[in-house]
Amino acid sequence: MKKIYFDHSATTPVDKDVLKVMLPYFTKNFGNPSSIHSFGQKAMTGVDQARAQAAKFLNCKPDEIVFTSGSTEANNLAINGVVKAINKRNKAAKKLHIITSVIEHDSVLEPIAGLEREGFEVTHLSVKSNGVIDPEEFKKAIKENTVLVSIMYVNSEVGSIQPIREIGKIIKKINDNKLKTWQNREPNERGDKPELIYFHTDATQAANFLSCDTQYNYIDLLSISGHKIYGPKGAGLLFVKSGTPIIASQLGGHHENNRRSGTLNTAGIIGLGKALENLDQEKVEKNNQNISKIRDLLVAGIQKNIPDVVLNTDRENSTPAHAHFSFLGVEGESILIALDLAGIAVSTGSACASNSLKASHVVVAMGIKIEVAHSSIRFSLGKYNTIEEVETLIRILPPIITRLRKMSPEL
Amino acid sequence: MLYTEQVIKHFKKPHNQGVIKNADAIGQKGNLACGDVMKIYLKIGKKKNGHESENFIKNIKFETLGCAAAIAVSSALTDRIKGMTFKEALAVNKDDIVNDLGGLPAPKIHCSMLGLEALHEAIENYDKK
């Protein structure tokens, strides 16, 4: 049985050219990039090259990149690092305020919840029924003591794209005004420079499809994970715009300019660099068109062949790869297992959610009833999926849904 | 979270799945909000036990809306219960069902409780008649 993979939001296979550039760094170029001798320098040359590739992708300076183990670490570092750095110099001891959204990944929500328990103030923006935040609500949420905004670029479950550039612009305008007001005062009346608002976005699910130009999008901090972009697991990065206050979480080695200690994951970093290089604009556009076509077939096929389905992905406002459905009257996990037995891999929402019995907080936040949320399946396509694979799915899925529905009591 | 072979077998081809049209008792537990609903149908017979006659489960069927574990639990439960007296059936506990399935992932243990609760409710409903 030839297996089919429709779970690219969970992870992607490593591209062959990515693996190829990584391999020498496990063996021949095994040196520690921090070592001064030739072995170390050889490894460091590779890391420098990856840093340059990442900088090109993000349109930033190489030293604005902090390599991490992935997006979870990058998100934690961004949130705790920035808020704690600002709080450290918070002479007036005022309560600092963070804005995020209800649909963030747990690796954003949980560190923010931790800060909230420590006494920081938090606002969670809601989303509209298409899974997108409302910039007007965001504007109203900003306060005089707001220091950090963390809004994901693309939601991992339904694929909704957030108005990152608009948010970035709003923040920039407020920051510019704060500085102007301060500058316009008489020097003896200026007092301390005002704290600005820093903008973090978790771009984990966006990098494959959308511009991560940090200047164009007015971004201060941005997280990326290698394994979501046909690179290796265990390698990711946090972009930290120069001048952004940040305190390291992991200490004891002075790596990454004291922002993240720990021996560099050389091979992983080199793979990440190559994966980012592969995401050049031309390839991304071509890929987006291709995936989008396949997704349209998938959506049409499901809607035509299966009654009582709800499409939760707003195709006008999402990546081309996501199609999140609710199959009424069936539990999502049963569909997942039945499809898996037929050789097709999908997800009920997110891989992380599979250990919890709770309905997806994202789908519920979009106003979908809990019982409908429980019957959800996420298809996330990748660049190697084919029309034939979708046709196979459309053949296999309807009888599965019929069988499971027949088992359910009438309610 | 891996399911055992037994769970997958029951999930693929559940035993005693369906409805008993003129059931003597019905029990239902769970709700849509928690994601699992189990409904048990019973047909009751009488067994001679010395001078007394005892109720026993002549036939049992289930309908389940839920995850693979919930469906497998329903199937394994009905297998085990069929033919038992009420007393025997009420003595079955969740560990028995979990063992029949060769184990269940920890977050799914509650599914086995739900099946038993539906059975207990069906028996209670019969006794109330």
TrEMBL record, chain B:
GO terms for molecular function: iron ion binding; iron-sulfur cluster binding. It holds the Pfam family NifU_N. GO terms for biological process: iron-sulfur cluster assembly. InterPro entries: NIF_FeS_clus_asmbl_NifU_N (IPR002871). It comes from the Bacteria. Residues 3-129 form the NIF system FeS cluster assembly NifU N-terminal domain. PANTHER family: IRON-SULFUR CLUSTER ASSEMBLY ENZYME NIFU HOMOLOG. This is NIF system FeS cluster assembly NifU N-terminal domain-containing protein. The lineage of its organism: Bacteria, Candidatus Falkowiibacteriota.
